[in-house]
Specification:
The chain is of the alpha+beta class. Helix content is 32%, strand content 18%.
């Protein structure tokens, strides 16, 4: 099932979907780049897993234990062994596993990193240690001889402040080492198709293009996001229609009760109209006089049309009495 949106699908930004999409998008981009970079380059998906403590407000369920013990309520079970209390009791902090992945274009001969392709995640744009770690990595890349391609397909959060970025829903940024300090920027709207961006290679080779929309469509279809995202989208559409229907019914009730008098064109979607006030004697007289005048005018016009014409074909009035 293809995505119903021309560009980025905003439903992919949900928390339970983004993590999987953040893993699939670089994989599809790797497949697309491997077909165009040539034999002198390698495109690798690099990944790191970070373990961090979770605060009280962010704790959530991560899964079940591999091995667990529970008490048995069946009759005849073995007698419980008396527990031995420890002199000191410690509490392990709850931790969260954060998986970060990105693409690297390397030279096949010396394995030197030529370009890094980053797809920003919510943790990269949220104030905290992850945001600071990404900014440090970004500054190191911008200060080295490695090119950077930065893609942001998740709204919200705090974007990198340097350089100041224009206001837009999504964006793609390309910083080629040979062109610095100039940076290419592609602002993307919610209803815009994702653009083609250049991926820099070594100075001796021309950059290759990466179709972000094709990569997104490939990740969307291969992972089957439409199967379970369509239910969410359909529920949102149904809820929006219900709210609109309720607003229409409320407006209709107000009009019927004469609580409001709609101006012309104010409620074009309503099939009801405000009842007209009763006519006064003066209004009835003016209406009757207007009808009589209109009838008299129509009679005069009809008599003129029925009158014979005394002009002959030569234009003279011969034979006229």
């Amino acid at each position: 099932m293809p995505s119903p949106f021309p560009g980025m699908n905003p439903y992919l930004e949900q928390e339970d979907t983004w993590e999987d999409f953040h893993h699939n998008f670089p994989t599809r981009a790797q497949e697309a780049l491997n077909r165009s970079v040539g034999a002198n380059y390698l495109v690798k998906v690099e990944a790191r897993v970070y373990i961090r403590a979770v605060c009280e407000a962010e704790r959530r369920f991560f899964g079940r234990a591999d091995v667990a013990m529970s008490t048995s309520s069946e009759p005849g079970s073995a007698a419980a062994v008396a527990s031995i209390a420890a002199p000191v009791e410690l509490i392990l902090p709850e931790v969260e596993y954060v998986r970060d992945s990105w693409l690297e274009v390397r030279d096949r001969r010396d394995r030197r990193v030529i370009t890094v392709i980053e797809l920003l995640s919510p943790t990269d744009k949220k104030r905290g240690p992850d945001h600071g770690a990404y900014l440090s990595k970004r500054n190191i890349l911008l200060g080295s001889d490695t090119s950077l391609v930065e893609i942001d397909l998740h709204r919200g959060g705090q974007r990198p402040a340097l350089p100041p970025l224009p206001d837009c829903d999504y964006y793609a940024l390309v910083s080629q080492y040979e062109c610095r300090p100039r940076i290419g920027f592609w602002p993307i709207g919610l209803h815009d198709r994702l653009p083609l961006v250049p991926v820099p290679l070594a100075a001796s080779d021309a950059a290759v293009s990466l179709d972000l929309q094709a990569v997104l469509d490939g990740a969307y279809d291969s992972a089957g996001y439409g199967i379970y995202l369509c239910r969410v989208a359909r529920a949102a559409v149904v809820a929006r229609r219900c709210r609109l229907g309720q607003a229409i019914r409320s407006a209709s009730t107000l009009v019927d009760r004469r609580q409001v008098r709609p101006r012309p064109g104010l409620l074009p979607f309503l099939s009801v109209s405000a009842p007209h006030p009763p006519l006064t004697a003066a209004d009835a007289t003016r209406k009757r006089r207007g009808a009589c005048a209109s009838e008299s005018s129509r009679s005069v016009i009809a008599r003129r049309r029925r009158a014979p014409s005394w002009r002959n074909k030569t234009g003279t009035n011969r034979g006229r009495p």
